[in-house]
Design a protein that fits this description.
Blueprint lengths: L4 H6 L21 E10 L2 E10 H5 L7 E5 L4 E6 L5 E4 L18 E3 L2 H11 L8 H32 L9 H8 L4 E4 L7 E6 L5 E5 L6 E3 L6 E6 L6 E15 L2 E14 L6 E13 L7 E7 L9 E3 L7 E5 L17 E5 L11 E4 L1
Parallel strand pairs: 1-6, 7-11, 12-19
Antiparallel strand pairs: 1-2, 2-3, 3-4, 4-5, 7-8, 8-9, 10-11, 12-13, 13-14, 14-15, 15-16, 17-18
Helix pairs in contact: 3-4
């Protein structure tokens, strides 16, 4: 519902008939007198809240300084200065005064109790004279949040449609990362004096026999031949996690690629030899070249708390470190012919370590 401001302007000229000798006008704590009424404006029920400044009332100026017109889905405030000039404002209730002036709501007093009950019934809250104006401000904040959400939904619909063109995550991504990126371990029980001991390989998940291992030595698993770090069971931490970054390059169209950056987490808990494997996509970089010479990059990052039609947001993640490097570090050996020539790309920083990590790539 959009407010009919022409009808609201006619309803704003309400004089406050209060005696100039009233003690409330001369109380230091009270700066504004408040009244309220529900009016039928533009075919809708609208709450009108009138704020009268005590200093103007003592000068026999009985017109309100602010008139807040509150609808179910929108609100607006008509402000009148000392010279009688009026203007419309979209600010919320607490922002009507200057930023450094603080909230003026504690200095407001209802001229009659009926004003408090009118506001409480309209926004469905408790009729507490000390809190009802704050509840009205919260009501306006909810409206602003809904309006901002609608604007975000319209704006991010383009991003949502763009992300729908991205292929599915490769099914063998974790297996590929397990083989080429993540470190592996040979967990063994320390036996003093024995030349051989049984060890468990975290890559092939099989037991084998190794000779005279030492903790943190790099060995090869006798079963699968994979390089692994020897770890004595007694020296393992209660919880250990390996973190790495990898990139997946996929073709979106004949003239566009997408570089998908994943964070890999392999966690080990004491008492369990198998790793908990997790891969999270944190960024997508669309690289496009129509003429085969100049390429444009369009980055997006994933925000898990972003409330919109999609969690992908345009730009780089706040606080992340990125650096341009030649494209040959990522774009190598595409299986399908591609007309895109890329001269720059982005390396992802491992923000958990605070250093620029080496990003490995795989061609899909």
């Amino acid at each position: 519902m959009k407010l009919d401001k022409r009808a609201c302007r006619h309803a704003a000229n309400v004089l406050l008939h209060v005696s100039l000798n009233a003690g409330v006008l001369y109380t230091e704590r009270v700066k504004y007198l408040v009244t309220a009424a529900v009016k039928l404006l533009g075919g809708h029920r609208v709450l009108a809240v009138y704020f009268y400044e005590c200093e103007r009332l003592k000068a026999n100026d009985r017109m309100p300084k602010w008139v807040v017109f509150q609808g179910k889905d929108d609100f607006a405030t008509l402000e009148r200065d000392a010279a009688g000039n009026v203007k419309w404002r979209d600010a919320m209730l607490t922002n009507l005064t200057g930023y450094y002036s603080g909230s003026f709501l504690p200095a407001c007093v209802f001229y009659k109790k009926t004003g408090c009950h009118t506001i409480a019934r309209y926004i469905h809250v408790e009729a507490n004279p000390t809190l009802v104006l704050r509840h009205l401000d919260d009501y306006q904040q909810d409206i602003r949040d809904r309006q901002a959400k609608i604007r975000r939904y319209k704006r991010d619909a383009v991003v949502r449609d763009k992300m729908r063109r991205v292929p599915q995550t490769p099914a063998n991504l974790k297996r590929w990362a397990d083989k080429h990126i993540m470190p592996h371990y040979l967990f063994y029980d320390y036996n003093n004096g024995r030349a051989k001991t049984q060890a468990y390989c975290t890559y092939c998940e099989k037991f084998s026999v190794i000779k005279r291992p030492k903790s943190n030595d790099v060995l090869r698993c006798p079963k699968c031949g994979q390089k692994a770090i020897a770890k004595a069971q007694g020296r393992r931490a209660a919880y250990h996690e390996d973190r790495e970054t990898c990139q997946v390059v996929q073709q979106v169209s004949p003239y566009e690629l997408v570089v998908r950056i994943y964070k890999l987490y392999w966690s080990y808990a004491k008492g369990k030899d198998t790793a908990g494997k997790s891969a999270y996509e944190v960024m997508r970089i669309f690289v496009r070249s129509d003429d085969g010479k100049d390429a444009t990059m369009e980055p997006y990052y994933y925000d898990s708390v972003y409330d919109s039609v999609t969690r992908w947001r345009r730009g780089y993640h706040p606080g992340a470190l990125f650096q341009k490097k030649p494209a040959r570090y990522i774009f190598r050996g595409l299986k399908r012919p591609c007309k895109v020539r890329l001269w720059n790309t982005v390396l992802c920083a491992n923000s958990m370590r605070g250093q620029l990590s080496r990003c490995r790539s795989v061609t899909i």
